[in-house]
Write a sequence for this structure.
Protein backbone atom coordinates (compact mmCIF):
# COMPACT_ATOMS: atom_id res chain seq x y z
CA UNK A 1 0.00 0.00 0.00
CA UNK A 2 1.34 3.45 -0.96
CA UNK A 3 1.62 5.77 2.03
CA UNK A 4 3.05 8.89 0.44
CA UNK A 5 1.80 11.90 2.39
CA UNK A 6 0.49 14.60 0.10
CA UNK A 7 -2.59 15.92 1.86
CA UNK A 8 -3.24 16.27 5.62
CA UNK A 9 -6.48 17.42 7.22
CA UNK A 10 -7.15 19.06 10.60
CA UNK A 11 -10.39 19.24 12.54
CA UNK A 12 -9.73 21.71 15.33
CA UNK A 13 -6.94 24.17 14.80
CA UNK A 14 -5.82 25.73 18.05
CA UNK A 15 -2.54 25.54 19.94
CA UNK A 16 -1.85 21.83 19.36
CA UNK A 17 -3.30 21.52 15.85
CA UNK A 18 -1.56 24.70 14.76
CA UNK A 19 1.78 23.59 16.21
CA UNK A 20 1.56 20.20 14.49
CA UNK A 21 0.70 21.86 11.18
CA UNK A 22 3.60 24.31 11.54
CA UNK A 23 6.02 21.45 12.27
CA UNK A 24 4.77 19.47 9.26
CA UNK A 25 4.95 22.49 6.95
CA UNK A 26 8.49 23.25 8.11
CA UNK A 27 9.63 19.75 7.09
CA UNK A 28 7.24 19.18 4.19
CA UNK A 29 6.54 22.55 2.55
CA UNK A 30 4.83 20.94 -0.44
CA UNK A 31 2.31 19.01 1.66
CA UNK A 32 -1.18 20.43 1.26
CA UNK A 33 -2.89 21.09 4.58
CA UNK A 34 -6.67 21.33 4.90
CA UNK A 35 -8.70 22.53 7.87
CA UNK A 36 -12.39 22.17 8.65
CA UNK A 37 -14.15 25.37 9.72
CA UNK A 38 -17.10 24.41 11.90
CA UNK A 39 -17.75 28.10 12.68
CA UNK A 40 -18.52 28.88 9.02
CA UNK A 41 -20.34 32.14 9.66
CA UNK A 42 -18.36 34.15 10.54
CA UNK A 43 -15.20 32.27 9.47
CA UNK A 44 -12.71 31.30 12.17
CA UNK A 45 -10.11 34.04 12.71
CA UNK A 46 -7.54 31.35 13.58
CA UNK A 47 -8.03 29.65 10.23
CA UNK A 48 -7.89 32.94 8.34
CA UNK A 49 -4.62 33.77 10.10
CA UNK A 50 -3.19 30.32 9.26
CA UNK A 51 -4.13 30.79 5.60
CA UNK A 52 -2.40 34.15 5.60
CA UNK A 53 0.70 32.57 7.19
CA UNK A 54 0.82 29.89 4.49
CA UNK A 55 0.44 27.11 7.06
CA UNK A 56 -2.97 26.16 5.70
CA UNK A 57 -3.61 25.71 2.00
CA UNK A 58 -7.37 25.22 2.12
CA UNK A 59 -10.22 25.83 4.55
CA UNK A 60 -13.60 24.19 4.05
CA UNK A 61 -16.89 24.16 5.91
CA UNK A 62 -17.81 20.77 4.39
CA UNK A 63 -16.03 17.57 5.42
CA UNK A 64 -16.85 16.16 2.00
CA UNK A 65 -14.57 18.78 0.44
CA UNK A 66 -10.85 17.94 0.58
CA UNK A 67 -11.02 15.47 3.45
CA UNK A 68 -11.87 12.41 1.29
CA UNK A 69 -8.45 12.84 -0.38
CA UNK A 70 -6.45 13.28 2.84
CA UNK A 71 -3.72 10.77 3.68
CA UNK A 72 -3.76 11.69 7.38
CA UNK A 73 -6.45 13.47 9.42
CA UNK A 74 -5.70 14.97 12.85
CA UNK A 75 -8.65 15.31 15.24
CA UNK A 76 -7.72 18.26 17.48
CA UNK A 77 -11.11 19.19 18.92
CA UNK A 78 -12.21 18.45 22.53
CA UNK A 79 -12.31 14.74 23.41
CA UNK A 80 -16.08 14.24 23.04
CA UNK A 81 -16.18 16.20 19.79
CA UNK A 82 -13.39 14.08 18.31
CA UNK A 83 -15.53 10.98 18.79
CA UNK A 84 -18.42 12.57 16.89
CA UNK A 85 -16.12 13.57 14.04
CA UNK A 86 -14.79 10.02 13.81
CA UNK A 87 -18.28 8.79 12.93
CA UNK A 88 -18.77 11.58 10.39
CA UNK A 89 -15.54 10.65 8.62
CA UNK A 90 -16.29 6.93 8.38
CA UNK A 91 -17.96 6.95 4.98
CA UNK A 92 -15.99 9.70 3.25
CA UNK A 93 -12.32 8.77 3.79
CA UNK A 94 -10.25 6.50 1.59
CA UNK A 95 -9.21 3.13 3.00
CA UNK A 96 -5.51 4.09 3.10
CA UNK A 97 -6.22 7.15 5.30
CA UNK A 98 -4.85 7.38 8.84
CA UNK A 99 -7.08 9.14 11.38
CA UNK A 100 -5.41 10.15 14.64
CA UNK A 101 -6.39 12.39 17.53
CA UNK A 102 -4.48 14.47 20.10
CA UNK A 103 -6.74 14.00 23.12
CA UNK A 104 -5.48 13.14 26.58
CA UNK A 105 -8.01 10.30 27.02
CA UNK A 106 -7.79 7.27 24.74
CA UNK A 107 -10.25 4.66 26.03
CA UNK A 108 -13.49 6.24 24.78
CA UNK A 109 -12.33 7.08 21.29
CA UNK A 110 -10.82 3.61 20.89
CA UNK A 111 -14.15 2.10 21.93
CA UNK A 112 -15.82 4.32 19.32
CA UNK A 113 -13.39 3.10 16.65
CA UNK A 114 -14.38 -0.49 17.50
CA UNK A 115 -18.12 0.29 17.41
CA UNK A 116 -17.63 2.05 14.05
CA UNK A 117 -15.39 -0.74 12.73
CA UNK A 118 -12.63 1.79 12.05
CA UNK A 119 -9.80 0.04 13.92
CA UNK A 120 -7.81 -0.29 10.70
CA UNK A 121 -7.75 3.48 10.08
CA UNK A 122 -7.62 4.94 13.61
CA UNK A 123 -4.46 5.36 15.69
CA UNK A 124 -4.75 7.23 18.98
CA UNK A 125 -2.25 10.01 19.61
CA UNK A 126 -1.34 12.33 22.47
CA UNK A 127 1.46 14.92 22.22
CA UNK A 128 2.58 15.53 25.81
CA UNK A 129 3.10 19.24 25.46
CA UNK A 130 1.13 22.43 25.82
CA UNK A 131 1.07 25.98 27.08
CA UNK A 132 -0.97 28.17 29.37
CA UNK A 133 -1.95 30.01 26.17
CA UNK A 134 -4.50 28.78 23.66
CA UNK A 135 -5.38 29.27 20.02
CA UNK A 136 -3.52 29.15 16.74
CA UNK A 137 -1.84 32.52 17.38
CA UNK A 138 0.06 30.92 20.29
CA UNK A 139 1.16 27.86 18.29
CA UNK A 140 4.71 27.24 17.13
CA UNK A 141 6.54 24.27 15.61
CA UNK A 142 9.05 23.94 18.44
CA UNK A 143 6.22 23.25 20.93
CA UNK A 144 6.55 19.61 19.86
CA UNK A 145 10.34 19.41 19.98
CA UNK A 146 11.67 16.84 22.49
CA UNK A 147 8.14 16.26 23.79
CA UNK A 148 6.93 12.70 24.30
CA UNK A 149 4.21 11.85 21.79
CA UNK A 150 2.17 8.79 22.79
CA UNK A 151 0.69 6.61 20.06
CA UNK A 152 -2.01 4.03 20.90
CA UNK A 153 -2.65 1.75 17.91
CA UNK A 154 -5.64 -0.57 17.79
CA UNK A 155 -5.35 -4.36 17.58
CA UNK A 156 -6.07 -4.02 13.85
CA UNK A 157 -3.70 -1.17 13.03
CA UNK A 158 -1.56 -2.17 10.02
CA UNK A 159 2.17 -2.00 10.82
CA UNK A 160 2.87 0.19 7.80
CA UNK A 161 0.31 2.78 8.94
CA UNK A 162 1.77 2.84 12.44
CA UNK A 163 5.26 3.24 10.99
CA UNK A 164 4.14 6.18 8.84
CA UNK A 165 2.66 8.04 11.82
CA UNK A 166 5.61 7.07 14.05
CA UNK A 167 8.07 8.51 11.50
CA UNK A 168 6.00 11.68 11.03
CA UNK A 169 6.00 12.26 14.80
CA UNK A 170 9.80 11.86 14.89
CA UNK A 171 10.08 14.24 11.94
CA UNK A 172 8.25 16.87 14.02
CA UNK A 173 11.01 16.57 16.63
CA UNK A 174 8.89 14.64 19.14
CA UNK A 175 9.72 11.37 20.92
CA UNK A 176 7.13 8.72 20.00
CA UNK A 177 6.15 6.10 22.59
CA UNK A 178 3.69 3.29 21.87
CA UNK A 179 1.24 2.35 24.66
CA UNK A 180 -2.08 0.57 24.89
CA UNK A 181 -5.13 2.83 25.47
CA UNK A 182 -5.51 1.39 28.98
CA UNK A 183 -1.87 2.07 29.90
CA UNK A 184 -2.18 5.61 28.58
CA UNK A 185 -5.33 6.44 30.54
CA UNK A 186 -3.96 5.00 33.79
CA UNK A 187 -0.75 7.01 33.47
CA UNK A 188 -2.42 10.28 32.51
CA UNK A 189 -5.01 9.92 35.29
CA UNK A 190 -2.21 9.76 37.86
CA UNK A 191 0.23 12.37 36.55
CA UNK A 192 -2.10 14.84 34.84
CA UNK A 193 -5.81 14.46 35.48
CA UNK A 194 -5.60 14.07 39.28
CA UNK A 195 -3.17 17.03 39.70
CA UNK A 196 -5.56 19.27 37.76
CA UNK A 197 -8.45 18.26 40.03
CA UNK A 198 -6.32 18.81 43.14
CA UNK A 199 -5.17 22.23 41.94
CA UNK A 200 -8.70 23.35 41.05
CA UNK A 201 -10.20 22.21 44.37
CA UNK A 202 -7.33 23.69 46.38
CA UNK A 203 -7.92 27.07 44.76
CA UNK A 204 -11.66 26.73 45.39
CA UNK A 205 -10.98 25.84 49.03
CA UNK A 206 -8.89 28.98 49.55
CA UNK A 207 -11.48 31.09 47.74
CA UNK A 208 -14.27 29.76 49.97
CA UNK A 209 -12.17 30.01 53.16
CA UNK A 210 -11.00 33.58 52.62
CA UNK A 211 -12.51 36.52 54.48
CA UNK A 212 -13.94 39.70 53.01
CA UNK A 213 -10.55 41.41 53.12
CA UNK A 214 -9.13 38.55 50.99
CA UNK A 215 -5.93 38.16 53.02
CA UNK A 216 -5.41 34.61 51.70
CA UNK A 217 -5.65 35.83 48.13
CA UNK A 218 -3.24 38.67 48.87
CA UNK A 219 -0.65 36.31 50.36
CA UNK A 220 -1.10 33.53 47.79
CA UNK A 221 1.68 34.77 45.51
CA UNK A 222 4.83 32.70 45.02
CA UNK A 223 4.68 29.04 45.95
CA UNK A 224 0.89 28.71 46.18
CA UNK A 225 0.38 30.26 42.78
CA UNK A 226 3.11 28.02 41.32
CA UNK A 227 1.59 24.74 42.54
CA UNK A 228 -1.92 25.73 41.45
CA UNK A 229 -0.96 27.20 38.06
CA UNK A 230 -2.72 24.41 36.19
CA UNK A 231 -6.05 25.37 37.78
CA UNK A 232 -6.22 28.08 35.10
CA UNK A 233 -6.65 25.46 32.35
CA UNK A 234 -9.72 25.33 30.08
CA UNK A 235 -12.77 24.23 32.13
CA UNK A 236 -14.47 22.82 29.01
CA UNK A 237 -11.47 20.67 28.14
CA UNK A 238 -11.11 19.35 31.69
CA UNK A 239 -14.83 18.68 32.00
CA UNK A 240 -14.50 16.52 28.85
CA UNK A 241 -11.45 14.73 30.22
CA UNK A 242 -13.11 13.93 33.56
CA UNK A 243 -16.26 12.65 31.88
CA UNK A 244 -14.36 10.42 29.43
CA UNK A 245 -11.81 8.99 31.88
CA UNK A 246 -14.07 8.97 34.93
CA UNK A 247 -13.52 5.39 36.14
CA UNK A 248 -9.73 5.58 36.08
CA UNK A 249 -9.68 9.07 37.59
CA UNK A 250 -12.05 8.01 40.37
CA UNK A 251 -9.85 5.02 41.19
CA UNK A 252 -6.70 7.14 41.56
CA UNK A 253 -8.66 9.91 43.30
CA UNK A 254 -9.93 7.42 45.90
CA UNK A 255 -6.34 6.35 46.56
CA UNK A 256 -5.36 9.99 47.04
CA UNK A 257 -8.29 10.60 49.40
CA UNK A 258 -7.15 7.58 51.45
CA UNK A 259 -3.62 9.04 51.65
CA UNK A 260 -5.08 12.35 52.89
CA UNK A 261 -7.11 10.43 55.48
CA UNK A 262 -3.89 8.75 56.68
CA UNK A 263 -2.30 12.18 57.03
CA UNK A 264 -5.32 13.48 58.92
CA UNK A 265 -5.10 10.49 61.29
CA UNK A 266 -1.38 11.18 61.83
CA UNK A 267 -2.21 14.76 62.83
CA UNK A 268 -4.86 13.48 65.24
CA UNK A 269 -2.40 11.14 66.94
CA UNK A 270 0.62 13.48 66.60
CA UNK A 271 2.43 10.72 64.67
CA UNK A 272 5.65 12.58 63.90
CA UNK A 273 7.31 9.48 62.42
CA UNK A 274 4.57 9.10 59.77
CA UNK A 275 4.69 12.80 58.88
CA UNK A 276 8.49 12.82 58.59
CA UNK A 277 8.50 9.74 56.35
CA UNK A 278 5.72 11.18 54.19
CA UNK A 279 7.69 14.33 53.41
CA UNK A 280 11.00 12.48 53.16
CA UNK A 281 9.72 9.90 50.64
CA UNK A 282 8.05 12.59 48.58
CA UNK A 283 11.14 14.79 48.51
CA UNK A 284 13.43 11.92 47.55
CA UNK A 285 11.19 10.72 44.73
CA UNK A 286 10.56 14.23 43.39
CA UNK A 287 14.30 14.88 43.26
CA UNK A 288 14.72 11.75 41.11
CA UNK A 289 12.33 13.03 38.43
CA UNK A 290 14.31 14.35 35.41
CA UNK A 291 14.18 18.13 35.34
CA UNK A 292 14.69 18.50 31.60
CA UNK A 293 12.01 16.14 30.36
CA UNK A 294 8.77 17.43 28.89
CA UNK A 295 5.74 15.82 30.49
CA UNK A 296 1.96 16.09 30.49
CA UNK A 297 2.02 19.26 32.56
CA UNK A 298 4.21 21.67 30.64
CA UNK A 299 7.37 22.82 32.35
CA UNK A 300 8.10 26.47 33.10
CA UNK A 301 11.57 27.66 32.15
CA UNK A 302 12.68 29.78 35.09
CA UNK A 303 15.56 30.72 37.36
CA UNK A 304 15.61 32.11 40.90
CA UNK A 305 18.47 34.34 41.99
CA UNK A 306 19.45 36.45 45.00
CA UNK A 307 19.51 40.18 44.29
CA UNK A 308 21.05 43.03 46.23
CA UNK A 309 18.42 45.30 47.77
CA UNK A 310 19.46 48.47 45.99
CA UNK A 311 18.23 50.66 43.17
CA UNK A 312 19.07 49.34 39.72
CA UNK A 313 19.85 45.75 40.71
CA UNK A 314 17.00 44.25 38.68
CA UNK A 315 17.72 46.55 35.75
CA UNK A 316 21.36 45.39 35.76
CA UNK A 317 20.30 41.76 35.47
CA UNK A 318 17.78 42.50 32.71
CA UNK A 319 20.43 44.46 30.80
CA UNK A 320 22.98 41.64 31.23
CA UNK A 321 20.52 39.13 29.74
CA UNK A 322 19.47 41.47 26.93
CA UNK A 323 23.08 42.17 25.95
CA UNK A 324 23.55 38.42 25.57
CA UNK A 325 20.40 38.09 23.44
CA UNK A 326 18.41 36.17 26.08
CA UNK A 327 14.74 37.16 26.04
CA UNK A 328 12.74 37.40 29.29
CA UNK A 329 9.13 36.21 29.34
CA UNK A 330 8.30 37.32 32.90
CA UNK A 331 10.14 38.75 35.91
CA UNK A 332 9.30 39.51 39.54
CA UNK A 333 10.30 39.31 43.20
CA UNK A 334 9.17 36.20 45.12
CA UNK A 335 8.62 36.15 48.89
CA UNK A 336 7.86 32.77 50.48
CA UNK A 337 9.31 30.41 53.08
CA UNK A 338 11.12 28.33 50.46
CA UNK A 339 13.72 31.08 50.30
CA UNK A 340 15.31 32.82 53.28
CA UNK A 341 14.96 36.22 51.64
CA UNK A 342 13.11 37.61 48.64
CA UNK A 343 14.57 36.40 45.37
CA UNK A 344 14.17 37.43 41.77
CA UNK A 345 12.23 34.99 39.59
CA UNK A 346 12.87 35.17 35.84
CA UNK A 347 10.85 33.13 33.36
CA UNK A 348 12.05 32.37 29.84
CA UNK A 349 10.47 31.13 26.62
CA UNK A 350 12.45 27.91 26.22
CA UNK A 351 14.95 25.50 27.73
CA UNK A 352 17.89 26.94 25.79
CA UNK A 353 17.33 30.44 27.16
CA UNK A 354 16.97 29.11 30.71
CA UNK A 355 20.22 27.14 30.46
CA UNK A 356 22.15 30.06 28.95
CA UNK A 357 20.82 32.42 31.62
CA UNK A 358 21.88 30.08 34.44
CA UNK A 359 25.40 29.83 33.05
CA UNK A 360 25.68 33.56 32.43
CA UNK A 361 24.33 34.63 35.83
CA UNK A 362 26.48 32.07 37.69
CA UNK A 363 29.58 33.27 35.84
CA UNK A 364 28.78 36.80 37.01
CA UNK A 365 28.68 35.60 40.64
CA UNK A 366 24.91 35.62 41.08
CA UNK A 367 23.51 32.88 43.34
CA UNK A 368 21.20 30.83 41.10
CA UNK A 369 18.74 28.47 42.83
CA UNK A 370 17.77 25.07 41.43
CA UNK A 371 14.13 24.29 42.13
Amino acid sequence: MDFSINKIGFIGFGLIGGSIARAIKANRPNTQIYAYDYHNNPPSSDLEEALSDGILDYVTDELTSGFPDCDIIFLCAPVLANISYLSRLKYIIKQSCIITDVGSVKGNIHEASIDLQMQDVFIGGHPMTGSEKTGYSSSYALLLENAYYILTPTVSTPCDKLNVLHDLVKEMGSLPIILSPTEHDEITAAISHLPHIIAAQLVNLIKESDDVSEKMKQLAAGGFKDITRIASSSPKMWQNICLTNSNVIKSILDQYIESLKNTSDALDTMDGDYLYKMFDRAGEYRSSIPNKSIGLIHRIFEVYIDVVDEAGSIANIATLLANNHISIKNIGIIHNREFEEGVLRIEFYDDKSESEAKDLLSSCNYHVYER
Observations:
- The domain at 301-369 is CATH 3.30.2130.10 (VC0802-like).
- The chain has 13 helices and twelve strands.
